[in-house]
Specification:
The chain is mainly alpha-helical and 130 residues long. It contains seven helices and three strands; from the N terminus they run H-H-H-E-H-H-E-E-H-H.
C-alpha cells in the first residue's frame, strides 16, 4: 500500500522541506479508510470525557486492513496524523487503533494499552493472519 503522491508534493520533497498539511492531505487521499478510522476515533474521543477512544471493528477487506497498517506502521504518517488531530495514537491487532489525549502517555491507561500483556490478551484465532 503506497501513497499516491501528487507531482507538486514530490517536487517539494525533492527540493527541501514538505508542508505537513500537504503531506496529511496526501495521506487522506491515498489511505481513505485509515483516515476515516482515525478521524472517527478522534471524534469519539473529543465527544467524551474518556482518556481514550478506540476502534474494535476489523476492516471489511484486506485492502482496508492494508491501509490501516500502512498508516500506523509508518513513523512519518503516524506522527503527521497525531500532529494533525492533536492526539497520541496507539495500535493493536491490525485494526484496533486508539486515540489518547495528549499528555496521557504516562498514564496507567496508556501504558496498559500499549503493554505486552495487553497485546497478548487481545489476540484471537481470527486475527492471526493479519
Amino acid at each position: 500500500m503506497s501513497l499516491t503522491v501528487p507531482p507538486a508534493l514530490l517536487q517539494a520533497a525533492e527540493t527541501g522541506a514538505v508542508d505537513d498539511e500537504a503531506f496529511v492531505a496526501c495521506v487522506q487521499t491515498s489511505l481513505p479508510y485509515a483516515w476515516d478510522t482515525v478521524r472517527r476515533v478522534v471524534a469519539d474521543l473529543e465527544s467524551s470525557d474518556a482518556e481514550f477512544a478506540d476502534n474494535v471493528v476489523p476492516p471489511p477487506t484486506e485492502a482496508e486492513r492494508g491501509q490501516l497498517l500502512r498508516a500506523l506502521a509508518s513513523d512519518a504518517i503516524r506522527a503527521s496524523l497525531e500532529r494533525h488531530f492533536g492526539v497520541k495514537l496507539a495500535f493493536q491487532n491490525c485494526h484496533r487503533v486508539a486515540a489518547f489525549r495528549l499528555g496521557t502517555e504516562d498514564s496507567a491507561t496508556y501504558r496498559s494499552f500499549v503493554s505486552v500483556r495487553s497485546q497478548l490478551l487481545n489476540q484471537s484465532p481470527e486475527l492471526r493472519d493479519c
